[in-house]
Amino acid sequence: MYGKQGYGYGWFISGDKDDKIIQHDGGFAGFRAYIERQVNKHNTIIFISNVRHELVGNIREALVNILNDQPYTIPKISGANWIMSKAKETGVKQAIVDYRSLLKTKDSNNYYFSERECNSLGYYLLRNNRLDDAIELFKLNTEEYPASGNVFDSMGEAYLKAGDKINALSSYKKALELDPGNGNAADVIKKMELRQ
User: Fold this and answer.
1) Which of 37, 46, 148, 153 has the most CB atoms around it within 10 Å of its CB?
2) How far apart are CA 128 and CA 194, in angstroms?
3) Where are the domains of the chain?
4) Calculated CA dihedral for residues 69, 16, 57, 148, nearest 10 degrees
């Protein structure tokens, strides 16, 4: 059967004998998967996405409500993923302009902007040597999350890789100012200042 922890044979088990649910989910880089079996109701939910999705819980809740003829809310669309999808047609810079325009429309409530997702996409661009695009995405993230040391640290990394030491140093200093415990920013600043 399953242990007291509610886990058995790779499945999470919850509920009681009248309303037992077994489920498993996971993801990596470019995908996310979720499967749930509502044993007593004979319902199965399978959700597979080709993007790493932060809203799995919201999607699951909407699907459960649909199965039970209850009101549901359609989960919001990732703004960062929208930008990258649009960027395939127009380039990142124009996609960001288009996204800002989109946010001024009545449809803006259909989107959410996640610091983590934007940072992940920025690093994807950085790994693929699309340095200018990565910098544009990190800039947007610093505008959306000006109190996050992490986003300035990421922007500093992109500037440094692009050879722009002045903006890299400025970004790392801002990251350290916002998060004095950021050891990476402190180390990079120290190394950069020693080389000057």
Assistant:
1) 153
2) 29
3) 7-67, 78-195
4) 150
Q: How far is CA 27 from the centre of its chain?
A: 12
Q: What is the pLDDT along the chain (196 residues), one digit of tens a residue?
A: 445 567 777 888 888 878 888 999 887 766 788 899 999 989 999 988 876 666 777 888 898 899 889 999 888 888 888 898 898 899 999 999 999 898 899 888 888 888 988 898 899 999 999 999 999 999 999 999 999 999 999 999 999 999 999 999 999 999 999 999 999 999 999 999 888 7
What CATH number is given for 78-195 in this structure? Answer: 1.25.40.10
**Model-level pTM?**
0.73
Please state, as a whole number, how many other Cβ atoms lie within 10 Å of the Cβ of residue 5.
Answer: 8
- In 3D, which of 167, 134, 123, 135 has the Cα closest to residue 192? 167
Cβ atoms 55, 75 nearer than 8 A: yes
For 191, other C-beta atoms within 10 Å of its C-beta total: 10
Backbone angles phi, psi at 107, to 5 degrees: -80, -5
